[in-house]
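quick q for whoever's on today - can somebody do inverse folding on this one?? i tried earlier but teh output was garbage lol. tokens:
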């Protein structure tokens, strides 16, 4: 049934090494309150960094009831003594079924991506890239 699924962003503050950091997560739930799913990318215990951005819904995909396009933040993972590692890093776009949590990649994460805009019908049309100076710092411009 259309409209029986809610997707929302939750925000909070946590302390890490005596610093306060804000974080977010995207969550989906049935209108009646059941079948909760965290849609933000999950971090494993072997993460090589901290990812605090939970992402955001960028296209509701009205023709695909219960499925959305959303940005998700990825952090690489590796374990000493194991050949299994995850190298994805940065902001990407995934197609996510809010009922099952199944994920399909739409745009591979890149470290310099900061924004994606869709055409409202499931196609990413614009990617915003952070301009980095020769010293490695962001220049404040997005192209």
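ok took a stab at it. sequence:
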């Amino acid at each position: 049934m259309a409209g029986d699924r809610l997707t929302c962003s939750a925000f909070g503050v946590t302390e890490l090494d005596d610093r306060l950091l804000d974080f977010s997560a995207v969550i989906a739930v049935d209108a009646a309150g059941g079948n909760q799913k965290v849609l933000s990318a999950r971090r494993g215990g072997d993460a090589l960094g901290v990812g605090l951005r939970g992402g955001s819904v960028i296209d509701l995909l009205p023709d695909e009831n219960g499925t959305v396009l959303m940005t998700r933040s990825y952090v690489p993972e590796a374990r000493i003594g194991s050949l299994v590692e995850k190298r994805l890093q940065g902001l990407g776009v995934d197609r996510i079924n809010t009922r099952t949590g199944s994920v399909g990649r739409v745009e591979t994460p890149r470290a310099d991506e900061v924004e994606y805009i869709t055409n409202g019908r499931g196609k990413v049309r614009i990617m915003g890239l952070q301009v980095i100076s020769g010293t490695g710092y962001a220049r404040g411009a997005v192209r």
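fwiw The chain has one domain: 5-142. also The mean pLDDT is 83. so keep that in mind when u check it
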